[in-house]
Structures are given as structure tokens and as C-alpha cells.
Amino acid sequence: MNSDGSKNTPGTPDARDGGTPGTPDARDGGTPGAPDARGENTLGTPDARGGDTPTAPGATGTSASASAATGPGATPAPGPTAPGATGTGATPAPVTTTPGSTGPGAAPAFGSTTPGSTGPGAAPAFGSTTPGTTGPGPTPAPGSTTPGPTPSAPGATPSTPTGAAAASTSSDVPGARSGEQPLIAVTGSTGKLGSKIARHLADAGVRQRLLVRDPARAPELAGSEIAQASYGDHDALIDALDGVHTLLLLSATESADRVSLHTATIDAAVAAGVRHIVYTSFVGAGPNATFTFARDHWHTEQHLRATGVEFTFLRDNLYLDFVPGFVGEDDAIRGPAGDGRVAAVLRDDVAAAATQVLLDPAAHTGTTYDLTGPTAFTLTEAAALLSESHGRKIRYEPETLDEAYRSRERFGAPAWEVAGWVTSYAAIASGELGTVTTAVEQLTGRKPTSLAEYVATR
Fewer CB within 10 Å: N-end or C-end of the chain? Predict the structure, then answer.
């Protein structure tokens, strides 16, 4: 299911907002459950993330459900994007956001390191995102000596920012006249996640510029202006970002050139004088993340760090709103997630957290936030909750990795995309998506929505 609500492959969430299902990403795109992908990720493109980004289980970010090929009439769906480590109702634990770690017992990464698109049934990926869809990685390169803010709750990890950490005033902000608010640019405003964030900013009376590929699809919001540009279009981005202080960069839809689109967009922003970039990444982003799309997010993060511009990373977990889409036509959720847990997060909660960061970016300079739900659940537990909500028996049937690859080969998707679908579930099995944090509550002042609360309202 794409972040805009459409389904690619029966029973498989899509991303996007995040990329891989349940992952943050382009936002709102990407694979189901991932913050990243379709539409919210790509400027002016309908979402999938989150995502945006948001990805599929098995990745470190968010994903679609994969149906097994073995059940009669079952439609294999690419799998979820990120596993959870703590049990349902587990006490929130600090999240390690330092790229490079793939989580305890993380399974080896499958497939190529090039992020894939969210094709039918693709698992959401929040990573280099969504979708990227989302994944662990190497220790980030140190930035300048100016320290970032100290986090007040688990889930936030400050790092040394590479740009000036002091809050900017209208006198030193590009394009801002005396007494005028610094201008914020928002990508992915035509997607599920990006549109929510843009509306929150409008409600707060914030000046914003919506960067879209198709101006006709841009939302009409008070205090906003429209600029036409696509990811990677250097000249158009230079013009669109003129006078902008802070850029919300939602990860783009998964594709073979996703990382290059991200880095080119970052370079154009820096050249245009943007001071701070808020990027929607994926939980556990890293070069060796089990979820292959999460690796894209890590490469994007590393490039942004190296520019010297101020940054904040919002690493979304699998998108909670994509979980119902994991169910196949035969009422089965299938994928190699084992008994792993996933701390999936609702896109509404991601949007609320991102808005708070954008309202005062200087207070979050150099910080990485792992955005999760209040509990981590297994796919067996998810099936039980969905059974109660839907009024019919829904089950989870674990697949082996070989079974998962074979059941998805029939979609005819590129190898890198199939790897993203499968590894989103594998990331859940490895425990890379199971840590619960309090970052959402820390940023918004309220607890995030649980799966039980979400399905009860549908």
C-alpha cells in the first residue's frame, strides 16, 4: 500500500511516506510502514514515508507485508520493515542512534546496497528514504566542536553538529527581514506525512515554502508559498531554496539512484544558503543494516554531516498505519520476521514530532531522534489484534528467507527491490526494530499511539 492509501501488491503496505512499508520516507512514502517513500519523499510526488518515510518489517525502517506463496490463493506481500526488541508494554529504553550498529544478533544484510523502489507489495523502507524506508551503521563522523543539546529522554542522541549551533535571528537569516520569521522549506507536502507536517506548520502560523514537482497538487495553506523543484534538480532547487533557513528533507521514494538524489538535493540546499536540514531517516540506519533500504539513509546522513550544515535526524520506525496492510488476501501475514518485535510508530505521531523540531530547529541541532510507538509487538500479536478489529481470524505464518525470496520473485521486481521487501522482515527478526523510546513524548508532550489504540479507531 502506498502512503497515499493505494495498494501496489495485495496485502502489502507501501511506503512512504516512507519507502518500505512502515518506514518513513518520502515521505510518506516508501515501503509500507516505512517512513519514506512514495510521494512524500519525492518532491511533488504522491506519497507512497516517513515517511514519506515511512517501511517494511525486516528493514530497519518500515515495510509491507509479505504473503507466503505456499498458502492456497495467498498473495505474497513484501514484508514488514523493522523488528522490535522489547515486548509489548516494555519499558522504553534508550535508543542507540549511532550509525553502524545493526542491533543485537542482526542478520546479515541481503541484496545489494542500492535502495530499491517500493514496487507492488514492497515493504516500506524509511531509509534513504523511506520510505527509507530506515537501519544501523557506522559511527558518524565528528562534526565541529560545538556540542548539540543534551537529550532529556531516551531516544534522542546528540552529536557534535558541524555548523553553528546558536539560534539564528532575523538579522542573520538569509531572506528574513527584521522581525520576520525564518523561512522553512518543506518537501513532500503532497504526500501523507509531508502534508500533515505542512498543515501543522500552517496552523502554528509559520512561514513555509512548499517544494513540489507539480504545483497543481500542492496544498493551499495559510502563510505558504509554492516553489517548483524536484530532488536532484540543482538549478531549480537553488532558486526554490533561496532565502530558506531550515529545510525539511523527506526521504525520496526508493529507487536505484535514491542516495544520489538525496545528496544532490543536500548540496543544492547548502549552495543556496540553507542553515539547517531536518532529514527523515530510518531507525538503525547504517552501512550494514539488515534492512537494505536503511543503508541508503545512513549514506544520506553521512553526506549531510560532511557538509558542515546544521542537521537533525528523525529516524522513524515502521509506520504503524501500514500494519493492517500486511494482511494478504487469505487473511495471513507472511514474512521471515520470526518472533521479532517492531516498535512501529503512527505517521500522525511522526508529523507532530517533526513539527516541534521545525518550530525550534536550533534546540535540536546535531540530535538524532528514534521515533517509535509506545510498545513493540510481534507479528503474531499484531495478527491477534487485527483479528479482533476485523471480526475474522487473521494469522501470522513465518517464512524462511528462501521461501520469502521465492514467493516474491513472481512480481518481476528488480533484485534490489525484492531484497528490500524480504530484509524488512528480517530486520524485525534480528531485533533491529524492537527498541522502544520516549522520543515522541519528549518532543510532543504526549504519548504515541499504540497498535491497539489505532485498530480500535479504524
Answer: C
Round to whole Å and give the CA distance between 386 and 376: 15
d(CA 292, CA 171): 43
One-letter identity of residue 80: P
**Distance (Å, rounded) from C-alpha 426 to C-alpha 38?**
22
CA–CA separation, 96 and 362 (whole Å): 22
pLDDT > 70 in the chain, percent? 61
What are the angstrom distances between the C-alpha of 83 and each of 131, 147, 240, 288?
Answer: 16, 32, 38, 16
pLDDT in tens, 130-177: 333 333 333 333 233 333 333 444 577 665 433 333 333 333 444 444
Looking at domain 1-458, its CATH superfamily turns out to be NAD(P)-binding Rossmann-like Domain (3.40.50.720)
How confident is the model over 269-291, as a mean pLDDT? 98
**Cell 556540542, located at residue:** 147
- pLDDT over 90 at 195, yes or no: yes
Q: How confident is the model at residue 91, as a pLDDT? A: 39
Enumerate the domain spans of the chain. 1-458
- What is the pTM for the complete model shown? 0.70
133, 73, 135, 74: which is closest to 102 by C-alpha? 135
Distance CA 29, CA 319 (A): 10
Instruction: Give pLDDT, residue 181.
Output: 82
**Inter-residue contact 83 to 337 (CB < 8 Å):** yes
Q: How many CB atoms lie within 10 A of CB 262?
A: 29
Distances (CA, A) of 21 to 7, 95, 104, 134: 11, 21, 22, 10
CA distance 369 to 437: 9
Q: Which of 356, 50, 314 is nearest to 184 (CA)?
A: 356
Nearest Cα residue to 428 out of 118, 66, 121, 113: 66
- Are 190 and 216 in contact by the 8 Å Cβ rule? The answer is no
